[in-house]
């Protein structure tokens, strides 16, 4: 299945606010039920096991409502791991009120070097073309102390079929259209490793794992573990 770079409605400044809200609520349920929260939780557990660290400051890029790190943090808290989360999105209307949040460009993060333990993103990487993904990772690498975490989809024909099958669960027509576009423009682990390994000296240590329902978890280690 070849990658196709399809534009997503939620990315557009022309997406009506009511449609955006409905789609973001659909994404919250999708992340909770179909692997999004679990993938981020397991990556943070792995970083904690490798580093011995039990508290992390987290910058969540392309956060939207910020449900993934929030729910992962609640689950991790049961195991003595705590998160201090800052959400970042380029649309103020996407961010959840009451959270620590900032409106900014993911390609030019307005933070100092090593400003957060972890820089994380969920369902964001597939929105970027290879050169853009490299630029984002360079920025995230600059800002993190421990690791960059990428939680994203795996492109696969069966995954596309599952999106069609899930249409009745989605309230928003934006979610249905964007769900198909997301799978078509997603990467596979081999592509992700190749893109993130190119052009960096010294080489970065990259761990890629597959998770429930065509999710991939990518850890780009800042510290040597």
3D structure, described in words:
- With 225 residues, this protein is an alpha/beta fold.
- The protein has one domain (9-221): Rossmann fold.
- 40% of the residues lie in helices and 22% in strands.
- It is built from seven helices and seven strands; from the N terminus they run ααβαβββαβαααββ.
- The protein has a seven-stranded mixed sheet, with helices on both faces.
- A hairpin with a 3-residue loop joins β6 (205-211) and β7.
- α2 packs across α3 and α5 runs antiparallel to α6 (173-185).
- The protein is globular and about 45 Å long.
Helices and strands in order:
Blueprint (H helix, E strand, L loop, with lengths): L16 H17 L2 H16 L3 E7 L5 H11 L4 E8 L11 E3 L12 E7 L7 H14 E10 L3 H9 L7 H13 L3 H9 L7 E7 L3 E7 L4
Parallel strand pairs: 1-2, 1-4, 2-3, 4-5
Antiparallel strand pairs: 5-7, 6-7
Helix pairs in contact: 2-3, 5-6
Widest beta sheet: strand line-up:
3-2-1-4-5-7-6
Number of helices: 7
What share of residues are in beta strands? 15-25%
Structural class: alpha/beta
What's the gyration radius in Å?
16 Å
* Overall tally of domains: 1
- CATH top level label: Alpha Beta
First-to-last CA distance: 34 Å
- Enter the CATH topology name: Rossmann fold
CATH evolutionary superfamily: Vaccinia Virus protein VP39
Strand segment count = 7
Helix content: 25-40%
Global morphology: globular
Major sheet size, sense and barrel closure:
7 strands, mixed
Secondary-structure element order, N to C: HHEHEEEHEHHHEE
